[in-house]
Amino acid sequence: MDALPFFPVRASTIGGPIDDLYFAWLILSGVVALAVAVLIVWFAIRYRRGSPASRAIADAATHARTMHHIEITWTIVPMALFLGMFVWSAEVYYDAVRVPKDALPIYVVAKQWMWHAEHPAGEREINELHVPLNRPVVLVMTSQDVIHSLSIPDFRIKQDVLPGRYTTLSFTANRPGEYRLYCTQFCGTSHSNMVGRVLVMEPVAYEEWLSAHANVPTMASRGERRYRELGCDGCHGAQAAVHAPKLEGLFGRPVPLRDGRTVLADERFIRAAVLLPNQDVPAGYEASMPSFRGQIGEEELLEIIEYVKSKGNATPEVLP
Amino acid sequence: MNSAVIGANENIASHENYLSSGWNWRSWLLTLDHKRIGILYVVSITLLFGIGGAAAALIRLDLLTPHSQLVSIETYNKLFTMHGVIMVWFFLIPSIPATLGNFLIPMMVGARDLAFPRLNLLSWYLFVFGALFTIYALLSGGDDTGWTMYAPYSTSFSTSHVFAVATGVFIAGFSSILTGLNFIVTVHEMRAPGMTWFRLPLFIWAMYATSLILVLATPVLAMTLMLMGIERTFGIGVFDPGLGGDPLLFQHLFWFYSHPAVYIMVVPAMGVASEIISCFCRNPVFGYRFMAYAILAIAAFGFVVWGHHMFVSGQSAYAGTVFSLLTFLVSVPSAIKVFNWTATLYKAHVSFEAPMLYALGFVGLFTIGGLTGLFLASLGLDEQLHDTYFVVAHFHYIMVGAAVMAFFGGIHFWWPKITGRMYPEGWARFCAILTFIGFNLTFFPQFILGYLGMPRRYPDYPPEFQVWNVLSSAGSSLLVFGYVLPLAYLLWSLKYGAKAPANPWDAKGLEWQTESPPPTENFHTTPIVTEEAYAYRTESAHG
After folding, report:
1. Residue B144 and residue B72: Cα distance in Å, rounded?
2. Rounded to whole angstroms, how far apart are CA atoms A153 and B55?
3. Touching check for B313 and chain A: CB below 8 Å?
4. DSSP for residue B519
5. Under 8 Å between Cβ of A163 and B152
6. Do A44 and B351 meet the contact criterion of CB atoms below 8 Å apart?
7. pTM
8. Would the pLDDT of B440 be above 60?
9. Phi, psi of A214 (to 5 degrees)
């Protein structure tokens, strides 16, 4: 990195559109600031006390009308400009937060003061994130304690990571290399040390990295083990006698609830079903499931979700 | 406005004034005179500004190196919390309203005092009590949550003195509410004959709008802090998901107060700048009515934009969209104000005394602060900028650069009226320019750091950011002189400054039509207003 950086490296597909917005504002605000500065200096010199410049103004009625027109003009023009910029920036934002259907999920659990990432294939890493080049990735994130925020400036992305719920952050890295990752929401004493790096790898290198950990059980298989240990299959298993929702093909499907609402069976739904089972009870079932709150860690819960996912096939399009 | 206030037969040279009416401690600590209470506030907030500023100076010193060397990271976290808490609640919120507002509102509307003088004194005591409580908590162990005190860190995790600090702020909040109430009633009920709403100086419009915000927003802060205290003390779940609460609820409540609070800080500054610019241009403020409406619009819109602090918080994308749109709309009246101040210079008779330099500096810094706010209001772009130094730079430009510049401008402008002495002009001009340069040098590099991605509240940062941090710290050393020198020469002027005439600037407001310093009852006879505000154009002597 050079000695006096002015501008961050651009390493993701959303980087371009966000930089365009940034440059547009730089130009627009530069022009306005310069215009105001030039006018103030020019007026201040030309109309300094004692200068010979004429101060005569037109008759009162004409003057009042002109002033009114000027006021209206500089109300309408900025408003139109702002609305235009609003529409443009909202479009960029929707592009940024919409999770592509084929995105590779990586699960992130934040805790004071480290980033813990878990790949579906089973690899776990701390304060590092290996991602493949040119492939959409979605980080499904939660926190074990306070609010954190995952920021990768070179990708131009950031999302708060909250305890008790999942947030997502998606990106497509398009430049191989190593980039800084920060926590940007103040989270306590070592907040400024809750940093790490993102490694964007060529697909071949990424596959090699994955296969170096081939002996690690996948998240889904770890999830399945925990699922059995907790006795979930006693009710949800294919042979279970209890009348409970089955997990096959569940993930990504709309689920009609007993109270008439319909919700999408996404990560949030599964999480809530495990921890607060009586909150969203599917139609046709009794609210008889016990809560597993306190018996299951955030990582284990994510592994169970990955197990549920492995029994279905649709990945929902998520808009946080 | 009305030059007949000082009767020709009055002996101005030997008049009794509000300062000469007693100097024992009772005459100050039990005074009901709005002017003396204003001075009590000046002394209090100057001390608090010193404490908050010292914390800032230590922060900037520590950031000279990428690895925190001056202080431990625990101490650093407590320092920026102390800086934020003191500066926001105990300096910026009361800065212009409680000092200049207290002193000037009755004089500008032609009244003898505020509507409720005893309530006014109570406000000051509440403020001091809250401040002492907070300072004790901050110095005896400190609070490491940041001034934003986000839950659940503040409620379930931090082991520092969160509750005590919140209690201090809670107490001081009542001072804000009572002051706002007092100002609102005064502006409604105490205007002199002929002082119609659209003859009010823009400073009064600004203080009126600010008071509305103080009365409507501060209770929400009080409730939020109370809920936070309840969760922290009794473990009743409100915000902590571990207890069944919602952490975003805290942010919604907090910013419902704290966004309007930004307007509590900057709207009074707009009022001060309007008075000064008009006076030193000898021109009415361009588009007076638009300016008054813009002030009210800013105050009203300010209540519906809080969610722009939460674009990446986990708030829904649709909520973010609405808040972004509303934020762009609130920036329109702010833009109008900048254009109007600029246009006030057109065909004017501009002179460049120190208050004018401060006011022009205010316009410059407010413009930069406002424009960079548009970057942050843009949904996609905020993903990059949120919680970085870009945000730090942006809000310092508004709340410190602009608001403090205007505060200093106002102090200089009304110094002759308040103290009866002139300040040393050369020193004052020097400090106005020094502050402007020092401020830009301190905070402009932070915009660049922000887009590069440097997060706020980082005592340890990557080495590639060091150059910009060193520049910023260098600028802050200039800023220290810009802020401290006025204290020295203003105190000096109390004894050695030239005696001030009643109206040294040949200004139009009612406050200038009485003696300097004013008599205890402000005016010997109730003024009768016959002119619009800023009737500078009607004079023909200038050419």
Report:
1. 12
2. 28
3. yes
4. P
5. yes
6. no
7. 0.93
8. yes
9. -65, -25
H or E, element range at A177: strand A177-183
The predicted structure's pLDDT at residue B521: 93
DSSP string covering B466-507: HHHHHHHHHHHHHHHHHHHHHHHHHHHHHHHSPBP-S-TT--
Interchain pair A160, B316: CB under 8 A: no
Confidence of residue B541 (pLDDT cuts 50, 70, 90): very low
Per the structure block, which two tokens stand in for B177?
């509410």
- The better pLDDT of the pair A313, B258 is held by B258
d(CA B293, CA B403): 20
What value does the mean pLDDT of chain B take? 93
CB burial readout B27-46, b (16+ within 10 A) else e: eeeebebbbbbbbbbbebbe
Reply yes or no on whether the pLDDT at B10 is more than 50.
Answer: no
Order of strands across the sheet with A157-161?
A128-132, A196-201, A177-183, A148-152, A157-161
**CB neighbours (10 Å) of residue B49?**
20
CA atoms within 13 A on the CB side of B463: 3
Q: Do A192 and B74 touch (CB under 8 A)?
A: no
Q: What is the pLDDT of residues B354-385, one digit of tens each?
A: 999 999 999 999 999 999 999 999 999 999 99
pLDDT tens-digit series, residues A6-15: 999 999 999 9
Q: Please say whether the beta carbons of B12 and B502 come within 8 A.
A: yes
* Nearest chain B Cα distance for residue A236, angstroms: 27
Residue B287 has pLDDT above 60, yes or no: yes
**pLDDT of the residue at A240:** 81
Fold classified for B29-513: Cytochrome C Oxidase; Chain A (1.20.210)
- Residue whose tokens read 């009485």: B514
Q: How confident is the model at residue B391 (pLDDT cuts 50, 70, 90)?
A: very high
CB contact under 8 A, B381 and A92: yes
Tell which residue, A99, A98, A88, A84, has the closest CA to residue A17: A88
ipTM of the complex: 0.91
Choose among B208, B201, B215: nearest CA to B187. B208
- Tell me which residues of chain A, numbers 138 to 177, contact chain B at a CB-CB cutoff of 8 Å: 145-147, 149, 151, 153-154, 156-160, 162-165, 167
**Alpha helix stretches (DSSP H) within A11-162:** 15-46, 60-97
A44 exposure class (CB count in 10 Å sphere: 0-12, 13-18, 19+): middle
Phi, psi of B374 (to 5 degrees): -65, -35
Q: In whole angstroms, what is the distance from residue B417 CA to residue B518 CA?
A: 7
Distance of CA B502 to the CA centre of its chain: 27
Nearest by Cα to B221 from B161, B169, B262 = B169
pLDDT digits (tens, 9 = 90+) for B464-494: 999 999 999 999 999 999 999 999 999 999 9
pLDDT digits (tens, 9 = 90+) for B38-85: 999 999 999 999 999 999 999 999 999 999 999 999 999 999 999 999
Mean pLDDT (chain A) is: 91
